[in-house]
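In response to the reviewer comment on reproducibility (Comment 2.3), we provide here a single inverse folding case reported in full, input and output, so that an independent group could reproduce the run without further information from us. The structure tokens appear first.
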């Protein structure tokens, strides 16, 4: 099925737009799952990370529609980390959870095609439902990914206004009398429209817009009315629930418009540092429930 339709129908079915980010900070892994030194070059670290994140997936299955593994945290563990990432993505998809790979790839020609083949083709070794993309090298660098959007029904989320404090160093610089993030958004409008889904009206080409920049999200929603937003920065990075869903729009099924990512606020909340499995499961469930309820309440306030 068309990715935009799958994403929106999954969030409708689950009943919330939460995306759980899988960012396994080695110094924050609960002691229950630690093994060995937990250093990147320790061969026991990657299997420990895999066990931890599979346990997380077990707890969030049926509660969230999508996860967002951050590839850098696995790459730093070498080949064992990539093997763990492969196992985790397969495990999530077997539990009917969509996988949005956060790799922020952006390169030219055959290199871009190789990245697309790594994540988005049907026989990709790290098969993902969607991938984050950096557009800095130009629109032609998007073509290999857009081919997979068309042929294999995948999705992409293009960096436009990111959540980090320094994003304005470049993204706010004016180009043709508008901020660069708006210029990029306008350039993506015909692309997003081309890949609009037949069932929901949402595109398979989305953008990344941080919860820490709600006014900019408003402007980008005007420009891209049918593009799903991946909204990082919610929770530990300072973005509140109201700002996170600010660019959601009302459709027949209620307010929707993308997914809101929370990573550290769920994986590493204070109560998760325990050696008791039942206590850890309870604390993780509470963290997910708190994030979900906060987003639901924020959506209700929009009504």
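Designed residues, in position order:
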């Amino acid at each position: 099925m068309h990715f935009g339709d799958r994403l929106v129908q999954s969030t409708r079915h689950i009943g919330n737009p939460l995306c759980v980010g899988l960012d396994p900070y080695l110094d924050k892994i609960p002691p229950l799952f630690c093994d060995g030194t937990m250093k990147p070059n320790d061969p026991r670290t990657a299997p420990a990370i895999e066990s931890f994140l599979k346990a997380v997936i077990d707890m969030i299955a049926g509660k969230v529609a999508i996860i967002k593994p951050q590839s850098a945290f696995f790459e730093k563990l070498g080949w064992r980390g990539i093997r763990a990432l492969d196992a985790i993505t397969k495990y999530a998809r077997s539990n009917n959870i969509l996988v949005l790979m956060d790799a922020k790839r952006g390169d030219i020609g055959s290199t871009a095609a190789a990245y697309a083949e790594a994540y988005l083709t049907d026989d990709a070794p790290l098969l993902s439902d969607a991938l984050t993309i950096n557009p800095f090298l130009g629109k032609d660098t998007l073509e290999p990914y857009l081919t997979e959007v068309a042929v294999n029904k995948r999705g992409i989320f293009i960096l436009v206004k990111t959540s980090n404090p320094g994003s304005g160093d470049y993204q706010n610089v004016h180009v043709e009398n508008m901020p660069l993030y708006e210029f990029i958004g306008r350039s993506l409008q015909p692309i997003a429209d081309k890949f609009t889904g037949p069932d929901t009206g949402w595109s398979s080409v989305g953008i990344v817009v941080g919860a820490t920049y709600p006014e900019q999200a408003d402007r980008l929603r005007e420009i891209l009315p049918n593009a799903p937003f991946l909204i990082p920065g919610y929770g530990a990075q300072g973005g509140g629930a109201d700002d996170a869903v600010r660019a959601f729009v009302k459709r027949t099924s209620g307010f929707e418009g993308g997914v809101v990512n929370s990573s550290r606020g769920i994986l590493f909340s204070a109560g998760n540092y325990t050696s008791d499995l039942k206590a850890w499961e309870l604390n993780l469930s509470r963290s997910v429930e708190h994030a979900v309820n906060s987003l639901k309440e924020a959506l209700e306030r929009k009504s």
